Records
---
Amino acid sequence: MRILIGSPVHQKPEILSLFLQALERLEAPDVLPDYLFVDDNDNPTSSQWLADFSNRLPGRVLPLLTGSQQVGNRSDEHTHYWPPALVWKVAGFKNRFIDYALQHNYDALFLVDSDLVLHSRTLCRLVETEKDIVSEIFWTRWQPEGALLPQVWVSDEYNLFHREEGEVLSAEEQAQRELHFIHQLHVPGLYEVGGLGACTLIRRRALEAGIHFGKIKNVSYWGEDRHFCIRAAAYGFPLFVDTHYPAMHLYREADRIKAEQLLFTLKHFTPSSVNTDHPEYLTPTDYSNTSTHSLSFNRSTSSRTPEFPESPVIPEHLRESAVFAKYTADSFVVPQAFSGPRQSELHTPPVSKPKLTLTMTVYNEADRKLTDVLRSHREYIDEAVIIDDGSQDDSAELCREILKGIPLRLIRNETASFTNEVELRKQQWRETLASSPEWILNMDADEMFESRFAQGVHSLLAGTKADTICFRLFDMWSSTHYRDDDYWQAHRYYRPFLIRYKEGFSYKWREQSLHCGRFPDNVLDLPSEISNYRIQHWGWYTPAIRMAKFQRYQLLDPSARYGWKEQYESILDPNPRLTLWVDQDNINAEKETAPEYEATHHVNAMDVAEIASVQVINNSDLQIKSETKDVLYGKGKEKGAEQGMKCKLCGSSDTGVFHSYERFTLMGCGSCGLVFRNDVDHIQPEDMIAEIYNVKWVAMRDSAAASTYGDHALFGLMLLDMFSSGKGKLLEIGSGTGEFIHAALQAGWDAVGIEPSIDSRAYAKYKYDVDLLPGYWGDEAEEDTQTEEAHEIQELNEAEEDTDLSLDHKYEAVACWHVLEHIADPVAFLTDLREQLQPDGTIYITVPNKNSFTNEAYGVYSPLFTEEDHLYHYSEHTLTLLLAKSGLRPVALFTRQLPSGLDALLQAHPLYDDLAFTEQMGLLAKLQGEKRGHELCCVARVI
């Protein structure tokens, strides 16, 4: 089978080199493929890479096609922007490949983008499917705050759900089907889809039918691949995606670095079918002899046959797939010392900032939230258009004062017109258009975005292809909580707040005097997308405001013609169901979400992952959010002095009850996301330790000694080998039953451990002959008041002999495995440990992960939350904050989820049933990549 591989290339040299390396590794199904490139580069180094590739494969790389006149494009770490001229320029290149393949009698054309790294089995697998048009899948986080999404879709411009002809779906049903489609694509298989691109095999039968990438004049969909797919469907060719060997998309600098590591690793087991005449492809033995940085094993020189069973032979393509899975995940921080050019070393053209116009109406807002709202908006807007609709207070003057220095058009209506809202909105629209806007942000005077929107909005606008962007709005019922019940569900739906003005588009209004909408009714007919930036609506947050609005609706809509009668009546509900507002943990990028649970173990609604260009997107019955939260002081919950107590990490007063358990209460911070015990200032941890870490706990550890040693002690030792330069002095705080100290001593470390539990110390001496210091960090050594059983163990091992353990020196490494969550004053604790480090010393920390799959599965009744000795519950973000306050910085920060116990978690989790082995392993890799593992692991050094 003769195959032509075609790729239009306008690429950075460091990306192109990785693409070409992967191409050269491709296995061929029959005859070696030919290559045809369009050299559209403006960087001579990239052009030289193509020439070198041609020289390495004489006779297989056809003469380069040349690009046409350059079309400017913009790309940065946030997103990539393709202007229409560039889209159709690339379409022309692809059509040239089609013409060449037809003219030279190729059996298939494989079109692949030059920012992909392919699995070596990709081409063979696509041929094996015997489909006329089939793509290999890859996943991309199109925006830093978005979810990983596929390059294939089901229908229209980018719908990710199936719908039969004439079938009407609720928003919940759409979301459920989107979730099913996404999960399906994570299972290796072959699936029919409605759209695809970027990594596609097209057989000759489809090419001869006349399919091409040219623009269909009466279709407004963006992107040449969509027009190709519409033609394919019209000609009767179904489209398929294969998911056995996902490619790696090099969309950001971090992806490039991981791709370098991936290819570096793959050189240790190059498939035999790959041409190994070139130095890039050495056998494992050859490679270990040529690089001082290679990962090699110490092979024994003895001729004695090993006394263990022969390892099973793992097919090379499965080993390669495992490497792909590792490096396409986001689990580990890339070491700073990794070689290769960085984005900062390259010239990146400046990105122009789109003009953003704020439009708003105000009416007697001076003593409400207007000051805070305008201060938040002025950080990112370029101009403002505000209508003062008959205010009798200082609202207008407040607008001028706060927006001073920003162009402001302030229009005064002498008489309030809110009784005819549609006319007021039309006036607002006309006045806004008079300012020649590019992007229009329409916000009410009591609405404001969460703080991270200010840093991300211009990247969002520069990168989006949509004209309408939708957001969720949260009805704040107090300064710390939003309302969440059957009548108040605005936060479960996405609505348009931000549009790009399209001159020539016929905007149409909903002609009704109340609830007509802030924008014309048909803005969702334009290409649309949703964003996970959230909006706080402060229009209900005090009893006085609620009463005034209740009376207003009674006056303007007494028969609930335009609204919902039951919702109107619920405004004055004395016991509303409220949920704590928690700021997103990662202020730079919103992670993929995690489920929210109520005390009844109901799962509320699930946020749909961010999807480009959808028409109406809202939520389903399974709510997935970035924070695991509980329903707050609803029916049966108290509202005592705990509400508003200051966060122990960031000092914010925006705190509320996370959940009240039988013996203790957990608080949640609405600013940083920390969860902590409300009585942490009054806790004596030593009392808890004496009660919990007793003989029974030691017996439990003894029953699982092998897994404790292998899964934890040796894992900790591996981290030390990775991040500590030498085996010097090592201190472990909270040594438990001594496994890690024993392993460290055996590995050559000068190790000492501190353990407050008497029974644990006795076991360490009995089991491993390890002496642990008694007491707590910073305290004097305690008098032993141990159990009878512990005395017997110590007598048998003469543990009362004097030891010369001491702490009078600096340490190269300090380890705290699952200790920090028990420390009442973690800042003081870490600051003190920092002082014990050598100048280049390292601290190793593990804690339970607040954003873990375990907490998703069990909600507020997760064993991580119900352990009363867990004083703090850390996430990636809060642990980083804690380190910074303690004068430390993370060198590596990742999570870990062990396979043991996964079956129980799957049974408890509302989104999963029984999974096959490969599906479970895939889920484990996904949890690693999304930092949802059970255990949060951190390596830190002094700032």
---
Amino acid sequence: MPTAPQTTDELFQALQENDRRPYGRTRTVTAEELVDAAEQFEEPVALVHALLELQEAYTYGSEPRKSPVVFARLLNLFDEQPDVFDDRLRHMLFWRFKWVGHALRQLPEVPLTGLRQWLTEMRDRYEKAGLGLQPYYGQAYQLAAHLGEDTALAYELWAGRTRTRLSDCEACEICERALYHLVAGDDERALSVWEPVLAGKESCQEEPARSVSYALLPLLRTGRTDRARELHLAGYRGCRRNPSMSREVGRHLEFCALTGNEARGLELLAENRVLFEEVDSPLDQLGFLTGVEVLLQRVETLGRGELPAAGYAGRTWTVSGLRAEVRGRADDLAARFDARNGTTAHTDRRRVRLERAPLVDSLELTLRARGLDDVTPVAAAPVAEPTARAAAVPDALPELVLRARALDEQGHPDARACWARLRTLVTARDYVHPDDPAVGPLVRLRADLLAEEASRAGDKDEFTVAADLHEEAAALYDDAGEPGQAAVCRACAVLATAENATEGADAAEAQAGDGAEAKVAALTAAHAAMVRLHEETPGLTPFQEARLLRLRATALGLRLQTSRSEEHAAPVFAEVDLLHAFAARHDIDVQVSGALLLRTSTHALSGDLPAAVTEVDALLDRLKTRGPAWHLPRTLGLRGRLQLALRDAQAAQADLAEGLRLAADWPADAVDTARLHGDLAEAVMHLGRPDEALRHLTRCAELELRGGSRTDAYCTYSNAAQLSLDLGRVEDCIALLDSLLAEPDVAAGELDDRLVAQLRLTRARALHAGEDLKAATAEFVALAAESAGWDDDPGSHAMIAAETAVLLGESGEFGRAREAADQALAAHALAPRYEQLSNCLRELARLQAQRQGHDGLDDARAFLDDAARVADEARTAEYEAQGRSLDTALAYEHGRVAAYAGEYEDALTALDKALALLGEPGEDADHAGEWAECIRLAGAVEGLYLERPAPALARLDPAISRLTAAGHRQEAESLASLATRLRDEE
């Protein structure tokens, strides 16, 4: 707190501000400071309010030891100065007897006699105050359940009584009743009792998150797996990183462990690492740690105890190490509670959870299908995608070296497995190179490994790294007396450098086309350099010469792809013909196939799609008879993309699906399985199958991530998140984005900041769609602040600031909404976003008039004046809106705002203007709907609010006839309903 409040008004304002903060250390410390400040005033009411805020912070901040101490001060104040407590403060005081009972149960150092004494104190106080005892019996039942006693009588004494004003909320009581049946082993009855909470009909501060966490396993046991999945996603979001709900987090970890989602469990554990330190409640610690142990035990049972796990601060943990630590602490806590309670209930409950077997083999919880193989330390290499056939890797070192080189010459995917094995052997401290002339010297093998590493870097578009490694490999090949291999590596380095030609260009240059021109020039020079290398290198083997020809053709193909110039097509065909003729003469099938692929691509780039299809059909026929088989998936993928370009989505889907089926036999990176999934997503979207498209997008992204193409992966995931949001799968969208934003490189700021902003923007929109207005607004406000510094992209800032303004308006913060709207207008002046700004300003006007009525009219009309200026600018720029006309939408909003403010004549005038701008309704449904809404609102204003039904009916009846004649029955029915109401009220 910057400065202590100097007056009670400042104190109450500070208390209100603190109440808006999330529970945690910041809110708690501020509450403590505000109590200190309140003690300086001689106004006990202020101190009471400050103490109530502090107790709430302790209670929901999981600090049960301190909550009773604060309440004792409040109770003393009540006893000494009861008149200070008005009805509201008195109600809060008696309500919080339950908070103290809950806090004392969480502390094993409080003796059982102390717990019972507090219940007696609560009963005495309630009776003295003339209050009903149902809340007392609720606390007595919860103590019995905590102790593990026979709860039947305590349950009946509580549940059979009539609720009072001080009873727990309906949602909390439903949870307690459901838990009673759950403990009795009746899953179905428990779920039936829980239904109003699980369906969102009853809620409170802790519900439905608490009930959801308990209901997950009963849902699985009764076969409701889809409901369990849905509630896990929504319920976890309601309790994550919340110290007062650490037990609930533990149950979500347990759910992951028992559904084959151990990897997600470890991810959620990392997200909640703060709970190891911030949970001060021993009972909450016990619940959390037991859930953690269930997860870690399951991972260790699967033989992955060496995996990293997020645990207590101050050291790094493996699954096995953390499990041992957690087990010791949780066992001790359970023993302490049992010793205090005189039962074995907590140890028994722990044992039941730890001995529970998985309930399903595998339940896909999120759009990221990840396994324990994906849980690797940050520095570890990407995990290879499993295939249906395993690569044959010889055991003998000389044979392994020779096989790797032979497979590399063929371009065979299995070469990578051999090189990976060799890299492990060669880097070992005890490696001894074989003395074998066929293998050659160690320097040559090191060159081979560098060249293969360079190729992998190039596949990931890491061109600078690739060029450097190729040059280093070329130097080693020179040392090994292999000039042909050195020439091939230098040619690869030249091509990688050319592909990287625009790396240093700024955004303005790229937009102006300078970047493309630079790349075309670089590729032209690269081709010339490769030709010279080819001509000047003696003793090339056919394989090496074919590689050089392929690189030459590739350089010119990339040049055509960059320039899209007709004059650049013929040189590509000429180089391809050279490559094809040479490869065919020497029976190098892999290069024959490569030449035909390049020819197909060149036809496509030149715009001759039919010729491209003819070429690819011929290539497929050849591949089926002569191979290589691993080229089939890529070639089918190419034909699928050509069919998409020809707008034959059905044929494209068939080719891509077949390509994906064949790709299963090969490593994903070798046959570009990720792209097949991405293209298939596009094809099935065209066929109207968005859910299938979503599956392919997420699979594509995960393969890109495994292959090390992290930026591509996040872009694909971003598209998947947007699609899931468009499909109404809000929780799926949020869970996916939460998982991505928790990735180490994102958290460390290593990913492109604009891409991360896009992920956060989609998440904020999903939170808004999921009706979490507070979280959505906070994220939008943060994004608006960040995007204000995007000098190169004011348009995006305009859009983000406009959306932020609307959310602030929905939150009732119209002052801040005005500031955000002004930011949006300033950015719009630099990069116009006419429709977005107009929509934003009109919506803000509507919200303010609706919330504040006549008091908000002037400010609402100020928003509409800004919208009018935007519409004028759009008209001058000859901008055509994609949706409603900006002028008609503005006129309608003037009418609606005036109506909200009670200015009914002004409303009618504005709506008549809107109708004049719209004209008569035609066949277009959207236009007819807009026209009908104007008529409806005008009829309601005139007939209901101005009490002039006759003119209103004179407006409505002809409109109903017009709409009916034009076939717009639904719109006509809404007007007919209003007309009927007006006639009934005449």
---
Amino acid sequence: MGRDSGSDGRPGFRRRDHSVAPWIRTRLRTAPGAAVALALLVMATACLAAAFPRAVERYEDAGLRQAVVDATAPRTSLQVSAPQPGNYIPQSERETALRPESMRKSYERVLNVVERPLAVDSAQSVYGVRNINNLEAAETWLPMPSGLPAQMSLAAQSGLAEHSRPSAGRLPRAKEPVTAGTREVEAAVTTETARRLNIKVGSVIHVPGVQRAPLAVRVTGIVVPRDPEGAYWTTQPLLRTPSLIRPPTQGGEPEAYWLGALLLSPDAAPVLLGTPGEPARYWLLTPDPAALTAHELSRLGSVVASLESGPGLVKVRESTDADTGVSTDLDEVLASYAELRSGVRPLVSVAAFGTGAVAVVVLLMAGRLTADRRRTELALLRARGASLRGLTRRLLTETAVVALPAGALGLAGALLVVPYGRASYAVGAALAVTLLACAALPLRALAAHRVVGVHGAREDLASVRPSRRRTIAELTLLVLASAAVLALRGRGTSGTSDEALDSGTSGDQLVAMAPVLIGVVAALVLVRLYPLPLRWLARPAGRMRGAIGHLSLARAGRTSVSTVLPLLALLTALTTAAFGGSVLAGVADARDRAAVLNLGADARVEAEGALPAALPERVRSAPGVREVTPLSIAYEAKPGAGVESVPLAGVDPEGYARLAGRTGLGAFPADELKASPVGGAAKSGTDSPSPSGADGSARAGGSGSAKTPLPALASSAVADRYGTHPFSLRLSDGSDVTVRITLVRDLTPALPGTDFLIVDRAGLSTIAARPTTLLVTGDQVSGGALRKAVAAGTGADAGATARADVRLRSEERARYVDSPLQSGAERVYAVAVAAGSGYAVLALLLALVRAAPERAALLARLRTMGLTRSQGRRLLVLEALPQALLAAVGGVLTGWAAVRLLAPGIDLTSIALATPGGAPPTGTAALHTDPASLFLPALTVLLLATGIAAGQAWWTGRRGSVRELRAGDSR
């Protein structure tokens, strides 16, 4: 057995070093509570960090797929089309090119051209031959609404048997090879086509031929689509449902004719060459929404562009025909989704950065507090010869034994809670959290114990002066925060749709970190200013009777510099919570406002004609209804002799003024809209047939002089056009009314939009004054009860409400949450803000728990000097109050400043007011401060800090003082 140097460097036998494992076991047994707390913290943080990217990916993918599904197959399908083979080709080859075998081979080659990530749904994709020009049918038994013969479109499309079932007869087939000269072929029609065009099994329809006799098409079956809303039938709706075509006419009576589709067997496609319909080949490729992912949006757009006019189109032409073209609106759908995502993603990034920053601070603070608690132990080890590398390695191993399993459990929990999404980002996020937790304690110990020493200098805020490095770092953060705020105010959070489609994101990370940087800078500034008010208050407190005030201020000023991290966590969390709460409140307010702009009240009952006279009272008696405002709306009121129309609403001034003031839509004094007692300016064109005056105004009815115009409330656009001079309006019932604009408002409850006129109903004719709309207000209007009341009042079925349309503000509000992208982003944002607030509370608890043994010892010593229990509670509360008050006030001010500074660059319209079909939203959504989000978290921090201090004093007073007074105990 050879001799070698031992582990201590002296000659001796080689032996294994068993010191690491006993060290770890000893430390874990000595402080099991701290180990369990660290494990829980790492597990929760790793779970949140791993779940976040998967949750974002889930709602982004769901939003993309929903956008593609909502756009319908006619827009999203890739429509590959080629003309008929040229006449210079032999007829037999032309016919062969249209037969199913050739079409299927071309279809398979085209499928191979489509590259990932664009996936084709083969079950809904089809190919076939159809005529471009419609063919007139010679049969007179077909319906002819205006005497024009019906026209037919012949289509030989694949997959008819798989996508339909026979309702009568059988599917068409070709008994022998079909050529361009075949005299008769078989076809099928859908049930809808058969019903509207009076087609039955056995019917024969003749269409024109080219240099041959007319082609006879015998209907052998009537089919029912298995999935009428599937891409097979919706890509070409004519195959399923005939259309009534109204061609443009030069005056005279409008004409119309029916256009239907005859579904031929694919084997009968060559017969179309013998018709004047210009047959064309087509391959309809339907994308599979389930295979689309948002993270591949840029590549997806590139693939579509390549197929439309790029290398992909060249390959498609090589696989089909030199004149083949590809058309689709899928690129527009992708661009629309990218624009919506570009407005949503930066807001979620703000919440992610805020919560992530607070979580990082909490992990660092946990490591620093542990290092501070074990300062004497680690200093003693260094004094007894422990190397800095060995000490760091032991602390790293000790922490890793706890953090690594906890991080793995957090990752597993995230994968179970959010089972959708790529695992790589989740693993990376959980690994980053685990590594940070492992490194926090060793790095802090490495920095604190570089120099061997048992006793260190005081490290409180009143004595320690910031170093040059810290000053430079703080100035750097200040510059970064200023740059982020300026960039966000100038550029905003959302870029163009092209930028979003190309890069998948808008704005850079610096912009998204703007609220966090503001909170960090504010925390550093407050830490620098914190000792000043304590010094100012300490002198007058020292001259007061009693030692509690002076002692509490002195101890608050002696707080360790480790207070920087808790204050940083609190201010960052409070800023993020204020910003996030303001975003969520702004989204909710924008939707409420948009719903009110569209409806004008909590509910709207509207009909095309006049409503029953007793309906307002019946609606007023419905549960939750407080007031009903009847309106008489004429959308086609024509000023003077012009052809333009202006929407006119007749109202009851008193009730309508209350409604306008309550909704905030153009409040006005009711007296200024009331008609003059002698000014009933309406004249019925039916009841009083006398002509109008030369000035164009209506003459008096039975109530007053026609020369007194009705006062009117108008929009700015209408007021600019017609001014303040009286002018006449002709209503749809033939009556005339003279109005004069006396009030101008931008908005009004009765009519949305920028053109409207509001007058007193009392000045309208009897027919024009009948209510057509009811605006219903109430605290909790029941939709079911309101619809029942309207149905009973109009005589319609309660489930249908055929004569009157009932819309509720809650339903209108829900319409703006059109995409899973919006709802998912809101949920993730709310969870992120809640998690950030939780981490802030945890940071506060860690700071208080760290100081708990020292405070308990202080109270024990002071009780031996005569300190009462009530004085002890006041001492601890007053000692904790300056820091808590600093965090609360600083959080409120920082949150308010962040919202005010960043509001010009934040546009909430995308996340708040997206509408179905990409229609322009009603109004805009701007960021504004939410008082609840500003003050509630700050008050919670203040109450929690003082409550814990009071609770600790109460609990310490109930215990004995022996343990706290033991000599040498460093707790």
